[in-house]
């Protein structure tokens, strides 16, 4: 009896009772309708008297909801549970078990299947990549996966700087890695994607933005264990996507990149960050990383830029005193002086970064030389690189020779 309003895409199974409990005689002419939202599921044998039911709720078999109960959104009333006291159930309320235990969906324990899949994925990643490339960190806040993407460069890859500096180009074989830090939520990978931070000391923000968009797109396409796909893309395809083929010009770094968060750029990735005791110049040098955060559930990256025009014409403004013009000119002078200082700082910081990248390349080249077998050009025997010396002419000789 009475008006019942049912929204779209609800499922009402067999032997379900949705009952309008009669109003008092005084209100019979204008009864309050029983309202059901959208995307609700009423399973076999449930009995519902509630006047207001929101969206995305599940009523399991043979549960009972009284007439004075208001159901919010995203609630689950478990099989056989009874809710009879007058109340409004908050969104995401879950009532389960013989004793009708209540909890909030966000507080429910994680799905064991998700935890198992995360563990298997992290184990596989640790076996695929080296310790220098992939590591994990478990904290009270959750599990973090850290990937250092050492991008392979083509032979004779040139590092460029604008022509107003003394150095213009230098051939390098190594650049500092792209660093991906992914936070794995409890509902990953079945429902949620990892939140992540992507950083790099030599890429400008607008290029990092493109990579972040691609990482989000890869999640939308796959929606499964995504870490290997992300890491493989960053390592093998990121330069191609950014159009970096045979050279890279540091002058591409945007002026607005100055002043972003500082992260120490260690040329020796095998050491733990923050514990370096070396005294070399490159280890002491701190460079500003361009850091972009991302999530497949979010499209914005929280980076906003404000532009002020102090000389903009306002026809509604009352005529001020004649000193207004002088004050505006004074502000323009200060802005111009500050801009010149920033541009000067930018040129110096880019020059420092340029020489740091050259030193990083030399450090990594020496490391690879020591790890590999080398052929002595004197005795023609194969000797571990750590027992050899490479001359300035690139010839190699073992220590004995």
List keywords for this structure.
25% strand; alpha/beta; UDP N-Acetylglucosamine Acyltransferase, domain 1; five-stranded parallel beta sheet; 3 domains
Question: Which stretches of 5+ consecutive residues score pLDDT under 50?
Answer: 258-286, 296-322, 341-345
Number of strands: 29
Average pLDDT rating: 77
Q: How many distinct folded domains?
A: 3
Note the total helix count: 6
Strand order across the largest sheet: 2-5-8-11-14-15
CATH topology of the largest domain: Ubiquitin Conjugating Enzyme
Strand content: 15-25%
In CATH, what is the class of the largest domain?
Answer: Alpha Beta
Shape: elongated
- Per CATH, which architecture of the largest domain? Roll
Instruction: Give the % helix.
Output: 25-40%
Give the termini distance in whole angstroms.
103 Å
Gyration radius, to the nearest Å? 32 Å
Which superfamily, in CATH terms, is the homologous superfamily of the largest domain?
A: Ubiquitin Conjugating Enzyme
Summarize the topology.
Blueprint: E1 4-6, E2 11-12, E3 17-18, E4 34-36, E5 41-42, E6 47-48, E7 52-53, E8 58-59, E9 64-65, E10 69-71, E11 76-77, E12 82-83, E13 87-89, E14 93-96, E15 101-104, H1 112-128, E16 134-139, E17 142-149, E18 157-160, E19 169-172, E20 178-184, E21 195-200, H2 205-222, H3 227-236, H4 238-242, E22 247-249, E23 262-264, H5 281-284, E24 286-288, E25 290-295, H6 323-371, E26 373-375, E27 382-384, E28 388-390, E29 396-398
Parallel strand pairs: 1-4, 2-5, 3-6, 4-7, 5-8, 6-9, 7-10, 8-11, 9-12, 10-13, 11-14, 18-22
Antiparallel strand pairs: 14-15, 16-17, 17-20, 18-19, 20-21, 21-25, 23-24, 26-27, 28-29
């Amino acid at each position: 009896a009475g008006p019942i309003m049912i929204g779209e895409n609800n499922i009402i199974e067999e032997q379900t009772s949705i009952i309008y409990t009669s109003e008092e005689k005084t209100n019979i002419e204008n009864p309050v309708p029983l309202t059901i939202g959208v995307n609700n599921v009423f399973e076999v044998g449930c009995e519902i008297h509630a006047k207001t039911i929101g969206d995305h709720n599940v009523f399991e078999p043979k549960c009972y909801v009284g007439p004075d109960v208001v159901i919010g959104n995203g609630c689950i009333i478990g099989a056989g549970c009874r809710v009879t006291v007058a109340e409004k159930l908050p969104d995401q309320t879950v009532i389960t078990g013989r004793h009708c235990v209540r909890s909030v969906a966000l507080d429910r324990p994680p799905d064991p299947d998700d935890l198992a899949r995360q563990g298997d994925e992290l184990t596989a990643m640790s076996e695929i990549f080296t310790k220098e490339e992939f590591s994990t960190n478990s904290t009270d806040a959750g599990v973090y996966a850290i990937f250092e993407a050492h991008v392979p460069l083509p032979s004779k890859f040139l590092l460029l700087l604008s022509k107003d500096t003394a150095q213009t180009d230098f051939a390098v074989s190594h650049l500092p890695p792209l660093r991906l830090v992914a936070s794995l939520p409890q509902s990953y990978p079945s429902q949620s994607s990892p939140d992540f931070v992507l950083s790099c000391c030599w890429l400008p923000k607008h290029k990092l933005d493109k990579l972040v968009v691609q990482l989000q797109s890869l999640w939308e396409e796959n929606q499964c264990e995504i870490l290997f796909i992300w890491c493989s893309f960053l390592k093998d395809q990121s330069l191609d996507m950014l159009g970096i083929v045979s050279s890279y010009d540091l002058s591409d770094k945007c002026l607005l990149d100055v002043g972003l968060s500082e992260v120490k750029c260690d040329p020796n990735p095998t050491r733990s960050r923050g514990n370096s005791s070396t005294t070399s110049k490159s280890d002491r040098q701190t460079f500003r990383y361009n850091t972009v955060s991302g999530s497949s559930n979010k499209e914005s990256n929280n980076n906003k830029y404000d532009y002020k025009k102090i000389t903009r014409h306002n026809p509604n403004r009352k005529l001020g005193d004649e000193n207004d013009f002088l004050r505006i000119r004074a502000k323009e002078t200060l802005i111009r002086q500050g801009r010149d200082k920033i541009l000067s700082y930018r040129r110096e910081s880019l020059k420092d970064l340029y020489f740091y990248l050259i030193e990083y390349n030399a450090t990594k080249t020496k490391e690879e030389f020591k790890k590999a077998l080398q052929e002595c050009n004197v005795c023609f025997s194969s000797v571990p690189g750590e027992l050899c010396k490479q001359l300035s002419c690139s010839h190699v000789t073992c220590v004995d020779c």
